[in-house]
Amino acid sequence: MRTSEIHRRWLDFFAKKQHEVVPSASLVSSDPSILFTIAGMVPFIPYIVGTEKAPYARAVSVQKCIRTNDIENVGRTTRHGTFFQMAGNFSFGDYFKKGAIDFSWELLTGAQDEGGYGLDPERLWITLWEEDQESFDHLVEVIGFPAERIVRLPWEESCWDTGQPGPAGSTGEWHYDRGPEFGPDAPHGVLPEWPGSPEAEDRYIEIWNLVFDQFLRGEGKGKDYPLLGELDQKSIDTGLGVERLAYILQGRNNMYEIDQVFPVIEKAQELSGRVYGADDEDDVRLRVVADHVRSALMLVADGVKPGNEGRGYVLRRLIRRAVRSMRLLGYDDPSMPALLPVSKDVMKESYSQLESDFSRISDVVYAEEEAFRRTLASGTTIFDQLAGGVREQGGRSIAGEDAFRLHDTFGFPIDLTLEMAQEVGLSVDEEGFRSAMSEQRERARADAAAKKTGHTDTALYNRILGQRGEAVPFLGYTESSVAT
Ligand code: ATP
Ligand code: MG
Ligand code: MG
Ligand code: MG
């Protein structure tokens, strides 16, 4: 089943169940405090927390999402993309747990020739909050779901909340068992004892998260807060990973091999001459390329421009990582003009505006690749000399001032230096980098202040400005990657 068909069936199924079909919101939220739309519920937050009354009791959407906190997982797990589509159904004070469970069961296991996804019920597992007896009984007594494939978890491992006093709820997560060739059997009822075991998580794939938004929670740190009572308006908020279902239904090994992503891997193979499946590290690079090219396409389509901060920096980093991965695969020519159109051609089945907007989108992406190629051309030799020097002296770490010089003079963001160092088995003194960075900021600030009062030597000021060149503000691994 094609990914666009999974998308269409989702909307059709819930439309027939009286849900209002709501188009995907932009990846760029109107709320500047949210970097990107990270889940299907984001556009519905006011209805869920109760600050606005929902104009409909039931809604359905397939939401475009970006999760930068999954960037390190891309290509290494089977199931994490920086861009993905989250299909969701929502109830605002209308149906609750039983209704949500019934819909999910009907759609997942319903026959394909009757509009369902046709998953084998024997392969499904579900997690629940241990005190959610209502859902447990409904599954066992009404649906006939076997109790040994229901995993009961403490609140901390199964709850949803906003991180502050307000609505909270327990969740149910449908998992799909890909079979013994992907890992050992889970003992009855204990599936997610295993976060941290990637093999186990790759056998039992989380596909659909149901949130039963039921309680009012009080003050407390982390998950340690009292439940003060039930909400007046209970809500249902769910999210299914379209790409995850696609790779299961398409019989592929991971989400990068589905119809909407794999053609980019094929093109990258053709360009680089590397063969997918022949080498683990090359495979990761090929998947990273396909993932990041698609994310860049979708981000630029939604109006993001490459830049040195916030959203623009995330986009810049995605494009740069894709370009670098192609170089590590042995392909040094510009690669975006070959790869981006392939991604557009497969994604336009679901997002037709990609075609009409493609000349604008491609201009942005190609220009960014060119700019990055210039940066690389000027800095790579210096980096290699630095790394060579460190090694000659038997060192293991690139000095903070050197990393700073690469940044300051050649526009190498620290992320790039870290990645390149890692590839040659070195670390970087990040602490030293940061202090060199803040010293420079201090100097610039002092100079600017002096200039305001008219006591500065403007020649010195200009020299510092000139040195700073195209300096990239330090966002660091954490801040830029945990941007969600
Ligand atoms: P996981 O534990 O596998 O990282 P999650 O619990 O973080 O997933 P949710 O926040 O519950 O994911 O999102 C709802 C659904 O969206 C998930 O059940 C999954 O199918 C899908 N999903 C989440 N993150 C990604 C991603 N990075 N790429 C593809 N699909 C995703
Ligand atoms: Mg996750
Ligand atoms: Mg999870
Ligand atoms: Mg989840």
Topology readout:
Elements: H1 3-16, E1 20-21, H2 45-49, E2 58-66, E3 83-92, H3 97-109, E4 124-129, H4 133-143, E5 150-153, H5 155-158, E6 159-161, E7 166-177, H6 198-203, E8 204-217, E9 227-241, H7 242-249, H8 262-272, H9 280-301, H10 310-328, H11 336-347, H12 353-356, H13 358-392, E10 397-398, H14 400-410, H15 414-423, E11 427-428, H16 430-452, H17 458-468, H18 476-481
Parallel strand pairs: 1-2, 4-5, 10-11
Antiparallel strand pairs: 2-3, 3-9, 4-7, 6-7, 7-8, 8-9
Helix pairs in contact: 3-4, 8-9, 8-11, 9-10, 9-11, 9-13, 10-13, 11-13, 14-16, 16-17
The structure holds adenosine-5'-triphosphate and magnesium ion (3 copies).
Subcellular location: Cytoplasm
GO molecular function: alanine-tRNA ligase activity
EC number: 6.1.1.7
What is the succession of H and E elements?
A: HEHEEHEHEHEEHEEHHHHHHHEHHEHHH
In helices, the fraction of residues equals: 40-55%
Q: Count the E strands.
A: 11
What name does CATH use for the topology of the largest domain? BirA Bifunctional Protein, domain 2
Tell me the β content.
Answer: 15-25%
Query: SS-based structural class?
Result: alpha/beta
The rounded Rg comes to 25 Å
Which cofactor or ligand species appear?
adenosine-5'-triphosphate, magnesium ion
CATH superfamily placement of the largest domain: Bira Bifunctional Protein, Domain 2
End-to-end C-alpha gap: 31 Å
Point out poorly predicted stretches.
453-484
